[in-house]
Amino acid sequence: MNTKSRTTLRKHLIEKREAIVKEAKREIEKFIRGEDKAIVETALDDGDWSVVDLAEDVNLKRLSNHRETLVKIDEALRKLDDGTYGICEECGQEISEKRLKVLPFAIYCKDCQEKKEKIEEVEKQEEVE
Ligand SMILES: [Zn+2]
Q1: Which CATH code is given to the segment(s) 3-128?
Q2: Where are the domains positioned within the chain?
C-alpha cells in the first residue's frame, strides 16, 4: 500500500470514527440530562465508554456495535502508524487492496479468513453435537 492510499485511508477512518462517536453521543444523550451530559461529551471523545453506564435505558446493543466498530477503527489506525496495516495477522502476507477496499478492517487475507471460518464452523457443529 503506497503513502497516498494510506493517507486517504487514515482520513476516511478518522471521519468514520467521528461520525460514530457523534451518533453514539446522540443516542446516550437521549437518556440523560444535566451534568451527566457534559461527562458523556468529553468521555466519549477520549474513548471512555464507561459513561454508557450512566444511561441505563440506552439501547445497549446498538451502542456496543458502535463500540466494536470504534475498536476496529482504532486498531486499523494503530496499524497504519506502525506500518502493519494490510498485513495478514495469520500468515504475514499482504492483504490485497481490493479486499481492503471492501473490508477496511480486515486483519486476515482471504485464504486465512476462509480457513478460520471453516474451523469456526466445525467448532460450532461440535458444540451442537
Ligand atoms: Zn493470511
Answers
A1: 1.20.120
A2: 3-128
Mean pLDDT, range 92-108, rounded to an integer: 91
Q: How remote is the CA of residue 87 from the centroid of ligand 1, in Å?
A: 8
Q: Which of 7-13's residues contact partners 24+ apart within 8 Å by CB, and which partners?
A: 9/76, 9/80, 9/85, 9/100, 9/104, 10/77, 10/80, 12/104, 13/73, 13/76, 13/77, 13/80, 13/104
Higher-pLDDT residue of 86, 32: 86
Residue 48 alpha carbon to ligand 1 centre in Å: 32
Please report the pLDDT score of residue 65 as a whole number.
84
pLDDT for 60 beyond 70? no
